[in-house]
């Protein structure tokens, strides 16, 4: 969520979480001659499908490493909010009122909440956004990408991260007696089944669940009540999928981490789920997996994929843009790695180069203690195609779409 989960898939497909904030479409799309990139926005590609997502991840990543973002970058993000509290992926004319044709979504909204809550001083904006998120919660306790859409693991998890960021207890946010954790339980695959321990993005038309690595990375963070930014949890060997009766969200998170750890044994990276690219590395999803494993305390299984990213992710990040750099920074932060010396690259500097100059000189090498405490603390054709693809492959987040391409 990653979004997560991966940021690239949702962004690319709709992007994710970051889910998907993938890089697929958004990263390769050049801005049209009639659409100038706002001076306060990070990235140089067409922001139609991932503007708010990539901006949110960029601001959150800068805050995480002790950099104060440019005021106009923050103002651009807050200015994208609709009167009802929701955010759309991008509004070219933020002065125009949002209406029924404005395609607001839960992932953009939740990502913005996580970023603005971390920065502080935006309680009015985040309060309205959270109120809107609560208003579109499904009866099963979860959230879909768009209001009224079927709940999915990526969207539910990125919203959990937003709730936690503003001090809410996700377990207490319910609809019809169901909390977000109930929705994640319904999307988890039982141990002993094919893909046991993993999370599915959504059930298929027959109600069956299929393991999805991007959804699993998001689900792990959601089950732990974490957002995009997290530190390593208590060490856990993750020797096998737990068959505990009536497993709680943390049990399911550990099972999801176990699934990811086993998936990364054959290769130090996760593979793309996009048709025709199944044998290709999914950099964004791998970064999200590193964050998820670290949050679950699986620090040992996170080492090889992190090392692989340090060696191989440079070209991908440069092509994909700010959300990709942010995902790598989150992975570095979660593992205690210096993002300014990430495989010989300075991720902080590279991210900064994609947007407006920070307001203050960056003299720090890590967030202050207070910042660390904060961190712990109708339908258009593009929408139909995007949602259909996301449903078919399951995004990430970054929204982990988290540029959710990244199948990301």
UniProtKB/TrEMBL annotation:
InterPro entries: Prenyltrans, Terpenoid_cyclase/PrenylTrfase
Signal peptide: 1-26
Transmembrane segments: 380-399
Pfam family membership, one: Prenyltrans
GO molecular function: catalytic activity
Region annotation (Disordered) ranges: 354-376
Segments forming domain Prenyltransferase alpha-alpha toroid: 56-166
Keywords in alphabetical order: Membrane, Repeat, Signal, Transmembrane, Transmembrane helix
Stated name of the protein: Prenyltransferase alpha-alpha toroid domain-containing protein
Organism encoding this protein: Streptomyces albiflavescens
